[in-house]
Write the structure tokens for this entry.
Amino acid sequence: MGCQEELLVEKVCEIYDQISRLETLKPSKDVNMLFTQLVLTCMPPCPNLDLTKLSKTVQEIRSKLIRLCGEAEGLLETHFSSLLGSLDNPLDNLNLFPYFSNYLKLSHLEFTILRRHSAANACPARAAFVGSGPLPLTSIVLAKNHLPTTAFHNYDIDPLANSLASRLVETDPNLSKHMFFHTTNILDVTTELKDYEVVFLAALVGMNKEEKIKVIDHLEKYMAPGAILMVRSAHGARAFLYPVVDSCDLRGFEVLSVFHPTDEVINSVVIARKLKFPMHSSLDHEGLAPLMLPCKCSDQIQAFCPLNHEVAIEEHLS
């Protein structure tokens, strides 16, 4: 690593030390300040940062930091979902959530990439969002702004999260007709997965590489051939905030595009299509090992993604 990367890692470790000493990660002045400082530290592009070359100590700090970020994010969303749910028109006040503009941009990016790789740019009839949480902003934004005819099935393991999310949606007569919530572990969902044309996998479902791959392998086993998987990942120093999904982790899928935003949208987006033949079985019906495709990515893009420049995004992805 160069001097710049060493300074970044040192700064991240300092912030981790302060975060780990907090009594609680519930939203507060100190919590907000430290996590904002962490995000701003990790946001600038850092192309020479190689996660595999970090020391064992830093690797352990990264793993712990991702879990702390996940816990803090869940508490933040729970706080604002409860706040919004107490209002007469929750969905008219989503901008109260401090990162709502980021979700607008990320959802627009995912919709644009999805449309580019969908047959005849058609809207999917049914989509699943795995790890929707108490404040399912992606599903809400996509349903209201981009995919108004799509039935969204939101999966979360936490009953409180789904209770809070349902309360927000039920106030909108139109949205509540095609937004559904399921409280279950996605690893327990099997045959239903074949009904979805698109499956979104949240960044914090699977907090480390092993957990993430287990979920992806499960989705590959039960999703319909040709269905689309949209995975959120992280790139560069942003990998201190979220788990990384590499193309080679998507066994049984053809990776269509990888997009690395460089603005305030933190998550990378990976879109992949399930292959026509099964990959979850070690042997096929003739006793032969299945064909394994090399890891490929037709587009790996690092670019600023302004919300209102749809044409620019299309040109990047072509």
